[in-house]
Amino acid sequence: MKLRIATLVLTVALAGCGGDAAPAAGPGAVTVFAAASLTESFTTLGRQFEAAHRGATVRFNFAGSAALATQINQGAPADVFASAAPKNMAAVTEAGNAAGAPTTFVRNQLVIAVAEGNPERITGLSGLTGPGRKVALCAEQVPCGAAARTALNAAGLRLTPVTLEQDVKAALAKVKLGEVDAALVYRTDAAAAAADVDAVEFPESARATNDYPIVVLRHAANPAGAQAFVDYVRSAGGMRVLTGAGFQRP
Amino acid sequence: MTTAPRRTGRVPIALLLPALGGLVFLVLPLAGLLWRTPWATLPQRLTAPDVVAALKLSLLTASLATLLCLILGVPLAWLLARVDFPGRRLARALITVPLVLPPVVGGIALLLALGRRGLLGGWLDSTFGVSLPFTTAGVVVAEAFVALPFLVISVEGALRGADTRYEEAAATLGASRWTTFTHVTLPLVAPGIAAGGVLCWARALGEFGATITFAGNYPGITQTMPLAVYQTMESGDLDGAVVLSLILLAVSVTILAALRDRWLAGP
């Protein structure tokens, strides 16, 4: 008897996961794997999407784009993938896990995040290389790190950071804690943390913009809901949220 | 000299099945690692400079962390086992906290205590210009923080299990407490200390969360093997991450297997 109940519970749970039980009326449950730098704006978009579509629920998995790509290619159940770099999107499309071609929906630029009030008076990239200056960068393997490397090369600067963080949020956290004097992060992340950090713009960031592609995944349990969410992100309302957060239109 | 297990007829199937299930549950993921290992490119990957640097750093910091734990942990265990002082129960509870604390929380706590703006770290920085985050010393501190409880618990258990008559005899013969400790107590619990040291070293070697949070991640300075595994995985290089994991696994298993029969299989 107990076994039968367990089986029943398991069956129901599995059916829920598979999305077979999605109500015909709304887009149902949509699972979105999105880059860490999209955390704030996608959380807002998810809430708006749920409000606009009755019965819809959006679940997010925010992490570094490369980690998400690996998870998707290893069979993690996801409907939509939004990456912070074309390279990580390519890992998914080349493995045949995308349904259709990805589209670039926003761009992002780097800024120098410094402690509130900019106590070290940092005004540009060259201010990061002084003696005793502690700087956090993203690791070159993750998109914000690759962009930072491009920007530093564009400025002709050599910079030895004290740490190479695994995603942009971790780099920003080291500034918030006061453990480093500055970090190169996305403008959007600095804006989201405006209560604790100031953002210093620098001209070389224009030569290191990151394109964000989005795609519906081939093994999506809910392809219609996934498409509806992607359309919503790219709609005028979605773009308002994204540009409000500091992203640029492609 | 352990006695051979008694064999009393057939093993009940109700015990055997879950036991085998448990074994498979623990071994299967390791098999997954071996199954996915890119054997053809293994030699090049093993000798890559980053891998060698991370492994060297891991072995060095885990050993230094164990040394630090021995210096601090053995006296602490002795205090808990042999001296009755007020607040002993609370002290014992506090010591086990890092065992159950998520390592990332440990890393944040270390930052708030020893970071540049931390409770003690702020003073260290302004007075001596010493700052632990982003240094190899910081890695040792993070590893010691999570590994120390393993040592203290092992040694305290050994001290409680040890026969105190020898210590009393030494004391009646005029030995001071320090002489008794170094000449009687320490040799008596040496196997317990060794067992605790091995556990401590293995835990320090595998430490990830507190290290990346407190000490950061920079190749050659703070990037230990677990951090290198994570970074390789994050960069989408699954093969590379598997190879690094395999090395870590091989080192851990070799050490534990070599020492287990000798020290960890207590009475």
Automatic annotation (TrEMBL), chain A:
Pfam families for this protein: SBP_bac_11 (PF13531)
PROSITE patterns reported in the protein's UniProt record: PROKAR_LIPOPROTEIN
Protein keywords: Metal-binding, Molybdenum, Signal
Gene Ontology biological-process annotations: molybdate ion transport
UniProt-recorded Gene Ontology molecular function terms: metal ion binding; molybdate ion binding
Binding positions for molybdate per the UniProt entry: 37, 65, 168, 186
SUPFAM superfamilies: Periplasmic binding protein-like II (SSF53850)
Coiled coil spans: none
Gene3D superfamilies per record: Periplasmic binding protein-like II
InterPro entries attached to this UniProt entry: ModA, ModA/WtpA
Signal peptide limits: 1-21
Family: Belongs to the bacterial solute-binding protein ModA family.
Protein name as it appears in the record: Molybdate transport system substrate-binding protein
Automatic annotation (TrEMBL), chain B:
Subcellular location: Cell membrane; Membrane
Example of a GO MF term: molybdate ion transmembrane transporter activity
Membrane topology listed for this record: Multi-pass membrane protein
Residue intervals of the ABC transmembrane type-1 domain: 55-257
Coiled-coil boundaries: none
Presence of keyword Cell membrane: yes
Family per similarity comment: Belongs to the binding-protein-dependent transport system permease family. CysTW subfamily.
Function recorded in the entry: Part of the binding-protein-dependent transport system for molybdenum; probably responsible for the translocation of the substrate across the membrane.
Protein name in the entry: Molybdenum transport system permease
Organism name: Actinoplanes teichomyceticus
